[in-house]
Amino acid sequence: MKVGLYSISCSGVWFNDRPALTVEEFIDIAKKYGYEGVEIDLKRPHGSPIDLDSKRCAEIRAYAEKQGLPICAVAANNNFAMPIPELIENELLMVREQIRVAKELGAPVLRLFAAWRGIVMREGIATYEVTRTPEYYGALKYQQFQTILACFRECVKWAEEAGVVLALQNHEPIIKTYEDMLEFVRLVDSPYFKCCFDAPCLGWNEKVQSDEYIWKATHDVGAL
After folding, report:
1. Cα separation of 200 and 178, whole Å?
2. Contact indicator for 100, 49 with CB cutoff of 8 Å
3. Which one of 9, 17, 97, 124 counts the least CB within 10 Å of its CB?
4. How many alpha carbons lie under 13 Å from residue 64 in its C-beta half-sphere?
């Protein structure tokens, strides 16, 4: 296991006293503080497929290799819970492009969400005030589940072709527990669709953050 730094911390989302770091500056910070790898968030300013053509991917990959840091993973911020077909197609297209970016960066893993509420930028810093309660246009839970599952099954075909593993994070909304994550992974049933187990996201109370609960969750996830 490698301890890596996730680029969201350097993207200017959570601070506004200086500009966001460039990808190269982020990699430098990771090296400076002794991290063993990096995870690049695949949205602006660091990794949006809009900006990362093959040439730019090659530049970032070469820089990380020069600094001796593997790009262990890249991260999507997808939302597959919407009932509107055009929005789902937009999300699928983004993930397909992110799989391309992962391959060209040499990243073996693309982290996925089932859904994501998003953020709003106000005065140069992120807030959840507007998006704290996600809007799914009245979609039923069953409809959301089936839509998300269908999207995962479509994405995993592209991932297999690219040799990239998709890793589903147990992250709200929609996914409330690690069992929810496991259910999706077992239903997709592909070696290219795995778990991204996030212990803090097990929940925010003493029971689910206890050593016993985390040990059980880790055991249940196992090699998935």
Report:
1. 11
2. yes
3. 17
4. 28
What is 41-89 written as a DSSP string? ESSTTT--TTT--HHHHHHHHHHHHHTT--EEEEE-------S-HHHHH
Convert the pLDDT of each residue in 211-220 to its tens digit: 999 999 999 9
Whether the per-residue pLDDT at 72 is higher than 90: the answer is yes
Domains of the chain, with CATH numbers? Answer: 1-75 (no CATH), 84-115+134-224 (3.20.20.150)
User: Looking at the DSSP assignment, which residues form a beta bridge with residue 5?
Assistant: 38
pTM metric for this prediction: 0.96
Crossing angle between the packed helical segments 85-105 and 54-66, to the nearest 10 degrees: 50
Question: In which region does residue 172 sit, left (phi positive, over 0), alpha (psi from -120 to 50) or beta (all else)?
Answer: beta
| Residue range 125-165, pLDDT digits in tens | 999 988 988 888 889 999 999 999 999 999 999 999 999 99
Q: How far apart are CA 21 and CA 7, in angstroms?
A: 9
Provide CB contacts within 8 A for 17, sequence distance 6+.
Answer: none
